[in-house]
């Protein structure tokens, strides 16, 4: 694993240098958030629904082993092959093995953050297998050789002019074309040929139902459906936290997912896979990859309830203005700032600090994960492990030293208020003063409140 | 048969605090907590809070041993540096019957995060239950029907996040349910007052404590965006229940030399006039 430490603040500052683009990125995501608000307001029992979803997920996590066994048993009974992978490497090896056994050379893959997390594509490509991401946004970033910048809207950071350029280079569309309809039609024609030629289809999974042994995939483009309907081989990759106990529970989540993700009442396609196509095979790979470990840690267990709707990204005022890549992780935004440092606090030490603790993520979360609280607790973990820069730790040690002593606090305040107005501007506003780059410091009053208070009581 | 989920930290506000009437308040020892940066840089916010409470017949005491709630250290993750400051806060305010503070953020620190540092110490649980942000003290504890006065300006309310989502001073735009705002409720009876209609009614201003320094670029971008929304809406006086957000926003305003004025809600309610100049 690469151990260069991620400096979110520096990445964000680089993104913000292009102010016009930052503004555009913020507006594009706020549009989704506003659409979400309108969709959610039509469901008067929304908060009750969130609570129910949260309880179902927490219950499932508490009994995870039982439900996983039940799922395997039911799926096997339906003629589905179930595989277990404890790591990303194991997952990739299993998928590769299945494809090889079937002599598959061309794969149509629908959206799956899990396969991004496991970095499946490069492994398959190294072994001579062509993988085509068939989700439009994912195909765009794949052609540009970029990772997704958002878990639901992978190409949200790319403007339509840039999509036109990419398609012109790779798909032969007219130079300078920007009409979304024209570009989408071109992608559709291109993908159709890939679907027709595919030997196997790989999908992610939104929900795996323990009671029925089937999996559910939610998409808007139908690419998952066509991708697994034509070839005889379907491999579904699923993180073990995607389990829900009963088919009846699904309705709670489908009511929440699309509304919260994109402001739609429901995804265009909610496809249930409960067995292979006639004459074909369905393989389900259940992946742990650190999930059990996360489940054991009380502070972060609830982050496994996440249904990957992406609403916390859309609402996050920092994500909107720093872009998905500033997090240098498969999953960016608030949920990513919990999941990544929980796994690798050294590399991702800055992510929990890429947050003003506004709490919007926790209020928007469909399964009520207290994301802001988890981010705060992670800061404690990171500072405790001394991954926080020494200068910051020393500053807090000094602040604590002062605040413990009323006399020292009074003296420090008095000196600051006496000196600040007398110092020449360049000594106060310089490279060392990050506050002062775009802001004035507060004006310094002659007397503090406590001095005024004392004076008032002397009279 | 489903297990109860652990209550979200932000849902722990439902607790029994008997409402007190103005008659009873007379006999109570009420402590005023003035956050450290307000004490040093915005003394008038503290004075306005004091005068406002006194005008309502409430006598408050300012224990001078107080310093800070410890939030800067806590939010940086420096937990062992936070503990002694939280312990000092408990010692200073333990013997008061109510504690009032003109900052939602500092009260949210006491209410939601002191458990980590003080659980088990005598007086901790009582402290959490008896510490109030100014607006909630006026609305929920004193049941003040409204403050008399006149304020003929277009006021833009900045919903400080910790007050909004931590103390539920108002309904947040993410949630579905009845809409309310204790801040606006207090301002509404003022004669001549009008309110700005914002495109984003409760987006964060970007202050976020040490975030404002660590992530300076994002912080200031957020601040600029928030002010642009208020400028579009014609805000003349920008107010909030937290001076920290206003310190950040007014820092940007003063650099830009615009003529929007910034006042803490206590200053408006105490009848202060709009400051001259910037």
Account of the 3D structure:
The complex is a heterodimer of chains A (459) and B (278). Chain A is α/β, with parallel strands linked by helices. Chain A has helices spanning 8-16, 19-41, 46-62, 64-77, 88-101, 113-117, 120-126, 136-143, 160-171, 180-197, 223-229, 247-262, 291-296, 311-315, 317-322, 333-343, 360-364, 371-384, 390-403, 406-419, 425-428, 449-458; strands spanning 81-85, 106-109, 130-133, 200-203, 207-209, 214-219, 233-239, 243-244, 269-273, 281-287. Chain A contains 22 helices and 10 strands. A 6-stranded parallel β-sheet of chain A has the order 1-10-7-4-2-3, sandwiched between helices. In chain A, strands 8-5-6-9 form a 4-stranded mixed β-sheet. Chain B has 278 residues and is α/β, with parallel strands linked by helices. The chains are: A alpha/beta (459), B alpha/beta (278). Chains A and B meet through helix 1, helix 2, helix 3, helix 15 and helix 17 of A and helix 2, helix 3, helix 4, helix 5 and helix 10 of B.
Quick overview of this protein structure:
The complex is a heterodimer of chains A (459) and B (278). With 459 residues, chain A is an alpha/beta fold.
How is the secondary structure organized here?
The complex is a heterodimer of chains A (459) and B (278).
Chain A: H1 8-16, H2 19-41, H3 46-62, H4 64-77, E1 81-85, H5 88-101, E2 106-109, H6 113-117, H7 120-126, E3 130-133, H8 136-143, H9 160-171, H10 180-197, E4 200-203, E5 207-209, E6 214-219, H11 223-229, E7 233-239, E8 243-244, H12 247-262, E9 269-273, E10 281-287, H13 291-296, H14 311-315, H15 317-322, H16 333-343, H17 360-364, H18 371-384, H19 390-403, H20 406-419, H21 425-428, H22 449-458
Parallel strand pairs in A: 1-10, 2-3, 2-4, 4-7, 5-8, 7-10
Antiparallel strand pairs in A: 5-6, 6-9
Helix pairs in contact in A: 2-12, 3-12, 9-10, 16-18
Chain B: H1 22-25, E1 30-32, H2 36-41, H3 43-55, E2 60-61, H4 71-76, H5 79-93, E3 98-101, H6 104-113, H7 115-118, H8 124-130, E4 131-133, H9 134-141, E5 154-157, H10 161-166, H11 182-187, E6 194-195, H12 211-214, H13 216-232, E7 237-240, H14 243-256, E8 261-264, H15 265-269
Parallel strand pairs in B: 1-2, 1-3, 3-4, 5-6, 5-7, 7-8
Helix pairs in contact in B: 13-14
């Amino acid at each position: 694993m690469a151990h260069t430490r991620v400096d979110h603040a520096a990445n964000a500052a680089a993104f913000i240098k292009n102010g016009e683009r930052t503004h555009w990125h913020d507006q594009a995501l706020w549009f989704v958030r506003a659409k979400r608000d309108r969709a959610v307001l039509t469901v008067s029992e929304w908060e009750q629904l969130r609570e129910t979803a949260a309880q179902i997920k927490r219950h499932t996590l508490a009994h995870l082993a039982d439900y996983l066994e039940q799922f395997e048993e039911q799926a096997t009974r339906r003629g589905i092959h179930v595989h277990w992978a404890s790591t990303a490497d194991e997952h990739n090896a299993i998928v590769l093995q299945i494809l090889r056994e079937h002599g598959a050379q061309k794969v149509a893959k629908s959206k799956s953050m899990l396969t991004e997390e496991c970095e499946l594509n490069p492994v398959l490509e190294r072994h001579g297998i062509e993988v085509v991401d068939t989700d439009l946004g994912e195909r765009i970033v794949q052609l540009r050789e970029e990772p997704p910048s958002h878990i639901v809207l992978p190409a949200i950071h790319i403007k339509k002019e840039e999509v036109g350029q990419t398609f012109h280079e790779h798909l032969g569309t007219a130079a300078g074309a920007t009409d979304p309809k024209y570009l989408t039609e071109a992608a559709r024609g291109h993908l159709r040929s890939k679907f027709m030629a595919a030997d196997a289809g790989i999908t992610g999974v939104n929900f795996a139902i323990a009671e029925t042994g089937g999996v559910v995939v939610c998409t808007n483009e139908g690419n998952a459906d066509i991708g697994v309907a034509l070839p005889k081989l379907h491999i579904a990759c699923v993180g073990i936290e995607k389990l829900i106990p009963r088919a009846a529970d699904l309705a709670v989540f489908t009511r929440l997912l699309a509304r919260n993700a994109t402001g739609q009442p429901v995804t265009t396609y909610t496809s249930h896979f409960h067995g292979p196509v006639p004459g074909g095979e369905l393989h389900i790979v259940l992946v742990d990859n650190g999930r059990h470990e996360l489940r054991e840690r009380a502070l972060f267990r609830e982050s496994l309830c996440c249904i990957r709707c992406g609403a916390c990204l859309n609402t996050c005022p920092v994500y909107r203005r720093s872009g998905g890549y500033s997090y240098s992780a498969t999953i960016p935004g608030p949920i990513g700032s919990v999941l990544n440092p929980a796994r690798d606090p050294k590399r991702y030490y800055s992510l929990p600090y890429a947050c003003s603790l506004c709490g919007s993520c926790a209020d928007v979360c469909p399964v009520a994960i207290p994301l802001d609280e988890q981010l705060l607790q992670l800061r404690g973990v990171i500072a405790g492990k001394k991954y926080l820069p020494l200068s910051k730790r020393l500053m807090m040690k000094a602040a604590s030293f002062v605040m413990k002593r009323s006399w020292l606090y009074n003296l420090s305040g008095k000196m600051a208020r006496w000196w600040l107005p007398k110092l020449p501007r360049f000594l106060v506003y310089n490279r060392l003063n990050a506050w002062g780059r775009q802001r004035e410091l507060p004006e310094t009053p002659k007397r503090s409140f406590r001095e005024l208070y004392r004076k008032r009581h002397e009279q | 048969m489903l297990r109860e989920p652990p209550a979200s930290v932000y849902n722990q506000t439902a607790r029994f605090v008997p409402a007190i009437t103005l008659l009873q308040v007379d006999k109570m020892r009420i402590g005023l907590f003035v956050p450290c940066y307000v004490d040093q840089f915005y003394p008038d916010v503290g004075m306005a809070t004091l005068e406002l409470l006194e005008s309502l017949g409430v006598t408050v005491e300012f224990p001078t041993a107080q310093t800070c709630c410890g939030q800067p250290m806590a939010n940086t993750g420096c937990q062992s540096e936070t503990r002694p400051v939280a312990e000092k806060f408990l010692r200073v305010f333990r013997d008061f019957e109510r504690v009032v503070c003109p900052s939602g953020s500092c009260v949210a620190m006491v209410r939601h995060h002191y458990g980590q540092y003080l659980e088990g110490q005598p007086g901790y649980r009582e402290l959490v239950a008896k510490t109030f942000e100014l607006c909630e003290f006026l609305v929920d504890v004193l049941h003040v029907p409204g403050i008399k006065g006149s304020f003929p300006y277009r006021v833009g309310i900045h919903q400080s996040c910790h007050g909004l989502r931590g103390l539920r001073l108002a309904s947040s735009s993410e949630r579905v349910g009845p809409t309310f705002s204790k801040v606006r409720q207090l301002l509404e009876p003022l004669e001549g007052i009008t309110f700005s209609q914002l495109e984003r009614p409760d987006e964060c201003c970007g202050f976020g404590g040490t975030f404002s320094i660590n992530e300076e670029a994002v912080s200031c971008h957020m601040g600029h965006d928030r002010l642009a929304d208020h400028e579009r809406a014609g805000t003349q006086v920008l107010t909030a229940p937290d001076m920290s957000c206003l310190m950040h926003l007014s820092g940007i305003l003063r650099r830009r030399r615009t003529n929007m004025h910034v006042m803490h809600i206590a200053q408006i309610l105490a009848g202060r006039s709009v400051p001259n100049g910037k």
